[in-house]
């Protein structure tokens, strides 16, 4: 699988932990973002970020930074569709039958990746359990 730092990837989906790493200055996530023509941020990720901001002492700053990020020309908010719901059902069924559940929000995020044909930028290893999901490889 090619590394995002060396190959132009047409579309990526940004997971919550990857957004947080980017905001902390992670160069590998920056490279993935800058080498993508389209960056999807699922509404589920935005919800997780809002939840995380609630208990922090930088709530207003974090909200402003998120809003600024979402305004970038290559960034789009991704909303679920009926196709997403179908993919979600299939992914959940596969994970349940295999005895390998993952968090519900992550099933929705994986479904967004599958629907859009995007590569998922995440640090969560449990996404490897989702058949057919294209994952970003963290440069080591």
How many helical stretches?
6
| Beta-strand content estimate | 15-25%
How many domains comprise the coordinates? 1
Kindly report how far apart the N and C termini lie.
14 Å
Task: Kindly name the structural category.
Answer: alpha/beta
Account of the 3D structure:
With 140 residues, the protein is of the alpha/beta class. The protein has a single domain (9-135), classed as 5'-nuclease (Rossmann fold, 3-Layer(aba) Sandwich). The protein contains six helices and five strands; from the N terminus they run E-H-H-E-H-H-E-H-H-E-E. It has a five-stranded parallel beta sheet, sandwiched between helices. Helix 1 crosses helix 2 (27-34) and helix 5 packs across helix 6 (104-116). The protein is globular, with a radius of gyration of 15 Å. The two termini are 14 Å apart.
How would the blueprint of this fold be written?
Blueprint: E1 9-14, H1 16-23, H2 27-34, E2 36-42, H3 43-54, H4 59-70, E3 75-78, H5 82-98, H6 104-116, E4 119-121, E5 134-135
Parallel strand pairs: 1-2, 1-4, 2-3, 4-5
Helix pairs in contact: 1-2, 5-6
Q: Could you name the key traits of this structure?
A:
5 strands; 5-stranded parallel sheet; disordered N terminus; 16% strand; 6 helices; Rossmann fold; alpha/beta; single chain; 140 residues
What's this model, at a glance?
The protein is built from 6 helices and 5 strands. The chain has helices at 16-23, 27-34, 43-54, 59-70, 82-98, 104-116, and strands at residues 9-14, 36-42, 75-78, 119-121, 134-135.
């Amino acid at each position: 699988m090619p590394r995002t730092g060396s190959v132009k990837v047409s579309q990526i989906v940004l997971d919550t932990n990857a957004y947080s790493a980017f905001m902390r200055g992670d160069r590998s996530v920056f490279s993935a973002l800058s080498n993508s023509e389209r960056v999807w941020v699922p509404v589920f990720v935005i919800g997780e970020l809002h939840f995380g901001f609630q208990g922090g002492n930088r709530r207003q700053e974090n909200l402003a930074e998120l809003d600024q990020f979402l305004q970038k020309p290559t960034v789009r908010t991704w909303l679920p569709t009926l196709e997403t719901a179908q993919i979600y059902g299939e992914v959940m069924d596969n994970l349940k039958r295999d005895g390998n559940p993952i968090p519900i929000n992550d099933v929705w995020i994986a479904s967004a990746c599958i629907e859009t044909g995007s590569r998922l930028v995440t640090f969560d290893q449990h996404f490897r359990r989702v058949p057919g999901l294209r994952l970003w490889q963290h440069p080591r």
